[in-house]
Amino acid sequence: MKISTFNINGVKARLPRLLEWLEETRPAVACLQEIKTQDEGFPIAEFEKLGYRGIWHGQKGFNGVAILADGEMPVEVQRGLEGEPEDEHSRYLEADVMGVRVVCIYLPNGNPVPGPKYDYKLRWMERLRRRMNAILAEEVPAIVTGDYNVIPTDRDVWSPPAMAADALMQTGSRDAYSRLLGDGWTDALATHNPRGGVWTFWDYQAGAWQRDHGFRIDHSLLSPELADRLVSCGVDKVHRGREKASDHAPVWVELSR
């Protein structure tokens, strides 16, 4: 069973690339971030032609997350995080799919630092942690996957000095991520690539893709019940190099049934 995550950077702008990826890799579940469309504009009919059904949580022009499943309708559990009623960003979607609790997230970027956007990021991460602990308490096989906008360690970036001032690498961001792992979640890519050097994002600027100046911010965290089923994981890097591609590459985990 393959579960993939893909920050598509605009579902309409990248639709040909997204459909191409789904056809070529055929994940059982695909979690999308930055769909950048209101709910009524989500192109579900195009995915249904390929056999996928889905749920989504959209927002005009920004953010937005979706969960697609091959031949099965995801059963929604929760959209949005509790704890900040005035927060209207579409960044969190949770569903039961094929016997797995699937959580798709698009964590705030947090730049510039310091400032209100970074404060919001840290609050959001604490709210996420509370929800993830509630999921752990259910003792269900679960995955929390998506764009975390956190570079966990210096091994996860092409040049630590180049990103040192960025919100993605600040101590507060890294500590919040580390606390999730300390609670019992397993970082799939880090587990299978302990030396690092695996990137999931390459900026459009400064020839980052051509020079392989990337970093890892798209993560799949597995509950103990699901970590035992992890067979393999990886990054569909080739899709980042295609015409009009997202600046992220898809990340996947393969799980035993």
From TrEMBL:
Cofactor note as given: Probably binds two magnesium or manganese ions per subunit.
Cofactor: Mg(2+); Mn(2+)
Residues at the site labelled Interaction with DNA substrate: H248
Annotated site, Transition state stabilizer, chain positions: N149
UniProt-recorded Gene Ontology molecular function terms: double-stranded DNA 3'-5' DNA exonuclease activity; metal ion binding
Keyword terms, alphabetized: Hydrolase, Magnesium, Manganese, Metal-binding
One Gene Ontology term from the biological process aspect of the record: DNA repair
InterPro entries given in the database record: AP_endonuc_1, Endo/exonu/phosph_ase_sf, Endo/exonuclease/phosphatase, ExoIII-like
E.C. numbers: 3.1.11.2
PROSITE patterns on file: AP_NUCLEASE_F1_4 (PS51435)
Residue stretches spanning the membrane: none
Active site residues of this protein: Y106, D147 (proton donor/acceptor), H248 (proton acceptor)
Binding of Mg(2+), residues: N7, E34, D147, N149, D247, H248
Site (Important for catalytic activity): D218
Enzyme class, UniProt record, top EC level: hydrolase
Chain ranges of the Endonuclease/exonuclease/phosphatase domain: 5-248
Family in the record: Belongs to the DNA repair enzymes AP/ExoA family.
Name of the protein this chain belongs to: Exodeoxyribonuclease III
Record gene name: xth
